Amino acid sequence: MRAGVALIAIVLAGWLACGAARGEPLAADLTSHLIGITSGFTGTSVVLFGATDGPGDIVVVVRGPDRDIAVRRKRRVAGIWVNAKEEVFVGVPSFYGIASSRPLDQIASPAVLAFQQMGVENLRLQLRRGPLRGEDIEFRDALIETQQDEGLFGAAPGKVDFLGERLFRTTLDFPSNVPTGQYLVEVFLIRNKTVVSAQTTPLIISKVGMDAEIYEFADRRGPLYGIVAVAAAMMAGWLASLPFRNA
Amino acid sequence: MDIYLPIAEISLDVTVLLILGAAVGFLSGVFGVGGGFLLTPLLIFIGVPPTVAVASSANQLVGASVSGALAHWRRGNVDLKMGLVLLVGGILGSILGVWLFGLLRRIGQIELVIALSYVVLLGTLGGLMLIEGTRAALRRRRPGASRRKLHQHIWVHGLPLKMRFRRSKLYISALLPLGLGFFIGILSAIMGVGGGFVMIPAMIYMLGMPTSVVPGTSLFQIIFVAASVTILQAINNRTVDLVLALVLLLGGVIGAQIGSRVGSRMRGEYLRILLAVLVIAMAGKLAIDMTATPDRLFSTAVVL
Fold this sequence. Notes:
The complex is a heterodimer.
Chain A: H1 2-21, E1 26-30, E2 34-37, E3 44-52, E4 57-63, E5 66-77, E6 80-93, E7 96-100, H2 104-107, H3 110-115, E8 126-127, H4 136-149, E9 158-159, E10 161-163, E11 167-174, E12 181-191, E13 194-207, H5 210-220, H6 222-241
Parallel strand pairs in A: 2-13, 7-9
Antiparallel strand pairs in A: 1-3, 3-11, 4-7, 4-12, 5-6, 6-8, 10-11, 12-13
Helix pairs in contact in A: 5-6
Chain B: E1 2-5, E2 10-13, H1 14-31, H2 36-45, H3 50-74, H4 80-106, H5 110-141, E3 162-165, E4 170-173, H6 175-191, H7 196-207, H8 214-236, H9 242-265, H10 268-291, E5 298-302
Antiparallel strand pairs in B: 1-2, 3-4
Helix pairs in contact in B: 1-9, 2-3, 3-8, 3-9, 4-6, 4-8, 5-10, 6-7, 7-8
């Protein structure tokens, strides 16, 4: 399996290198475009490989589907900790990972990093009610910290390795709690601190198997799911009482 | 062995869940209450999100009370008419309760309300049971104490819409069981409990029902109120985890059958004191959690 993947990777890399040689400055692909989450899912990794038409640095950014996230701050009221203040951030990536061939600050200028949203600190997080100001920064930092603790925002950038001057590869890691949906993997080729080429590859992460079916059922057909849940529980209760009937 | 719970979206050890179900089932068998008030907080302690814990407890309660109610039904200990009146109130209450649950969840206060309801209700009931149980135990030592009347008449019995309940030997206003059912329906939706621990004392002391028909009738109406809560939670909040409910049920029914056998051999007042201590301990733990400085002041939630 592993050897097979390696072989495919080498063949594809060779093909990509030909493509790059034909004048496209950057070509990259993933070993897999679909991650299935089953009941035993404990996280996985996908290999990204590619080729450039010459020397340069590579930055890879992985973004999960955007979500709106409420950040709540607790305050002590009459001795009890309650959620007192809430700020809603819109369009927050549900997953954010980054990998680069050298430390980011050596590759590109701060302006480029900010513009391309490279690095967690450069993510443009916006509030539903308008731009961030003053103490909103506290909520923004709390959001990033929580996402990092859950492994959803990469704390430290991963490493892009060059094999020779033009072939590169990196491993993208996904934790067990990875959100489902359509991901975008962006690959940037950077020379002289500016982006000279970029490519975007989709990646789908979805639940598969029995659990996925239950989840889908509960999500799409709530009333029917509720009735099935009640019927199943009643059935189980009745069955369980049978062996004790004459007691 | 871990089992993935598709709605809770976490993996938990299936053995832990079975033991938990069996332990709660055992206690409910011993004390004759549903055990939801123990199950929901325990699920929260082991990491199930509170909203899923509440809704899935209601689901497992359906099965547990079917099992219990059938046993009482065979012995003729169910007042069907009383059960139906309680039920009408209960379903109305659960509709309001589930709506309230969704609202509180959206404004980010549901966890607080669940915990607060538990502390207040468990604390009060545990305290009352402890006093009552201790008194009864002391009274037993002094024989010849005065006998109580069949039931006391208080102002609530004077309300209109009187109805005759033959099996309970009662002629009271239908508004009473209707209101009681309504209140328990709300509790059921917000706390994921059947409400037996409120319903049983209320039936005995407020309605004045004979003790023999109380557990059966209570269980009978809990089946339908819990069913109504499960369906409404599935529709409005999508928090019912069927896999979790069935695993708990499996452990629960076995525990309940063993428990009811143990319970019938123990003396009533000691049982009540024991249950009271358990309930107070639960309330105490939740109260400490609420007042302790949290590890972090910020929390996040995906906006649906």
